[in-house]
TrEMBL record:
PANTHER family: HTH-TYPE TRANSCRIPTIONAL REGULATOR (PTHR30126), HTH-TYPE TRANSCRIPTIONAL REGULATOR GLTR (PTHR30126:SF40). Keywords: DNA-binding, Transcription, Transcription regulation. The lineage of its organism: Bacteria, Bacillati, Actinomycetota, Actinomycetes, Streptosporangiales. Residues 1-59 form the HTH lysR-type domain. Belongs to the LysR transcriptional regulatory family. This is DNA-binding transcriptional LysR family regulator. It comes from the Bacteria.
Length: 299
C-alpha cells in the first residue's frame, strides 16, 4: 500500500468533509480516493469515516488519526521539496581555463538533460588540483599522463605566419653556429601545458636537438605567449582547435607525438560525482576539451 498517498487522500477528504471536494483537492478521481482510504482503514484496523452519514464524517478513530496523517503528509511534502532542491544544487566542476565559453555552454546544456546542474570553475592545472584538495569543487578535470587519460588532446606548434611544411620540426629552430646569441626563435609552453608529462618531455627533446635552454620556455600566461607569437617568429605549443581560435597557423610536431591527457577526479567524500560525469558526459567533455574519447583516444 502507498501509505503516503493513502494518508494524503484521508487528510484531504477529512479536512473538507467531502469525498468529492477532497478528491479534487488531492487531484485524484473520487473512486481512487475512496479505494486509498479503504486500504488505509484496512491497514490501520478501524474505519476512519462514518459511511452512514451523508457527509464524510470522521469517526472517533478517524479524528484521533487525522493529526498523525497530517504530519506524515507534511513530512512527505518537505522531503520532496528537499529532494528537488538537492537535485538542482549545482555540481561545481573545475575545468581548464582554455575551454571556450560556447563549449562549456554546450556541456552544461547536455548535463541538464541528464539531471545534472554544473557550475564551472575555470583554472590552470595546479589550481584545479588545489580546488579539488580543498573541497572548493566537487570534481575537477585534471591533467594526467596520456597512458592513464580518459581524454587526450594532440598538441602541435602554431605561429603567426603560414608554415611551408606539413609539420613543424623542432630541430629547425636550432641556431646556427654564426647566429647571435640573444634572440633565437622560442617555443612557448602555455600554463595549461605546464605539467611534467608535457613540459619535461618538450624540454628534453629541445636539449637533445641542441636548442638553447631559453628556446623552450613556460609563459606566464596564455595572453603573453600569444602576444610573443604574434610579434615574432616564435611558436606556441597548443592544440589545433585552440590555434584556430587564436588565428594562428598550426602544424603537428614532427619529432614526436605530444598529447595532453585528462581525466575527471572527485573530491574525497564527494561520492560518485566523477564517475557520473565520466559515464554520462564523457563525449561532451571530450568535445569541450577538443579531445578524442574512449577508443578514439587509444587509436
Amino acid at each position: 500500500m502507498d501509505l503516503v498517498g493513502a494518508c494524503r487522500a484521508f487528510v484531504s477528504v477529512g479536512e473538507r468533509g467531502s469525498f468529492t471536494l477532497g478528491a479534487a483537492a488531492a487531484r485524484i478521481p473520487q473512486p481512487v480516493a475512496s479505494r486509498r482510504i479503504a486500504a488505509l482503514e484496512k491497514h490501520l484496523g478501524a474505519p476512519l469515516f462514518d459511511r452512514s452519514a451523508r457527509r464524510a464524517t470522521l469517526t472517533p478513530f478517524g479524528r484521533e488519526m487525522l493529526p498523525s496523517a497530517q504530519r506524515l503528509v507534511r513530512l512527505a511534502d518537505a522531503m520532496e521539496y528537499d529532494a528537488e532542491t538537492a537535485r538542482r544544487t549545482p555540481l561545481r566542476l573545475a575545468v581548464p581555463d582554455t575551454c571556450a565559453t560556447l563549449a562549456l555552454a554546450r556541456l552544461e546544456a547536455e548535463a541538464r538533460g541528464h539531471g545534472l546542474h554544473l557550475e564551472f570553475q575555470p583554472a590552470p592545472p595546479a589550481r584545479r588540483a588545489e580546488l579539488l584538495r580543498s573541497h572548493q569543487v566537487r570534481a575537477a578535470v585534471v591533467a594526467v599522463a596520456p597512458d592513464s587519460a580518459a581524454w587526450t588532446v594532440p598538441l602541435g606548434l602554431a605561429g603567426a605566419a603560414p608554415p611551408r611544411a606539413a609539420v613543424y620540426y623542432l630541430e629547425t629552430l636550432r641556431p646556427g653556429r654564426g647566429d647571435p646569441a640573444p634572440r633565437a626563435r622560442r617555443v612557448w609552453i602555455q600554463p595549461e601545458d605546464d605539467v611534467p608529462h608535457v613540459r619535461d618531455r618538450l624540454v628534453r627533446l629541445g636539449d637533445t636537438l641542441g636548442l638553447r635552454p631559453a628556446q623552450v620556455a613556460v609563459a606566464g600566461s596564455l595572453t603573453s605567449a600569444v602576444a610573443d607569437t604574434l610579434e615574432s617568429a616564435d611558436l606556441l605549443l597548443c592544440p589545433a582547435g585552440q590555434a584556430a581560435e587564436l588565428g594562428l597557423h598550426w602544424r603537428p610536431l614532427g619529432e614526436t607525438a605530444l598529447p595532453r591527457g585528462y581525466d575527471v577526479a572527485g573530491a574525497v567524500g564527494a561520492g560518485d560525482d566523477a564517475e557520473r560525469i565520466r559515464t554520462l558526459l564523457g563525449a561532451a567533455v571530450a568535445r569541450c576539451l577538443g579531445a578524442a574519447a574512449g577508443a578514439e583516444a587509444a587509436a
